[in-house]
Amino acid sequence: MRTSSELTTIGFDADDTLWQNEQFFRMTEKRFAAMLADHGEEKQISARLLEAERRNLAIYGFGIKGFTLSMIETAIEVTDGRVPASVISEILDAGREMLGHPIEPLPYARETVEKLAGTFRLVLITKGDLFDQERKLAGSGLGDLFDAVEIVSDKTAATYARLFNRHGDGPARSMMVGNSLKSDVVPAIEAGGWGVHVPHELTWVLEHVEAPVAEPRFRQISDLGQLPELIESIAKPS
């Protein structure tokens, strides 16, 4: 018999948890800075772009399309409105290329999800553009292993409470696994669940917060290959 505290549901983040994502943003950001090299050094251009992204999150949300619009806005700003149409065209081309980048699964992603499928309810919980996230999931070949997929505008404690009630037995019997402390770990713990941090070397700066090391339901592992053993230790009935 399952106990009221036994783990039954595992949520997974997608970008930079199951497959590479941030590296394509970094590559495009360098390309963008090169386009505007006559108007500032790379660090300056990147800082202005980050300011635009921060301002625009509440308007455009997360994802490549919002990033592309922020690049265009930044180009207009740093050139005092004199950015050539050819540069705008190149920015749009860069955004389209990002939307078509191949899916590169991270180490242990497939084998870990396959190992857990059928034993736990698996829910993919990701934020970003609907079409792009659906494309990446289809390209990953992992879609059939999940019991549910949720693409959300943001990840908060309320988000996790709602989704783990919808697809599981509530937050207390659920775990969220991801590379972002801010989006994947802290709010899941605040909702009453477990939060497992799998660090990625290129996690976006706006996703950085302090690790909740004092929280009893916080765990950190170096890669997804360590997840099944961790879950086994947590999921055992008390």
From TrEMBL:
Domain of life: Bacteria
GO molecular function, one term: hydrolase activity
Entry-linked InterPro entries: HAD-like_sf, HAD_sf, PGP-like_dom2, S-2-haloacid_dehalogenase
Keywords: Hydrolase
Entry-linked CDD domains: HAD-like (cd07515)
UniProt keyword annotation of Hydrolase present: yes
Protein known as: HAD family hydrolase
Annotated source species: Mesorhizobium salmacidum
Organism ancestry: Bacteria, Pseudomonadati, Pseudomonadota, Alphaproteobacteria, Hyphomicrobiales
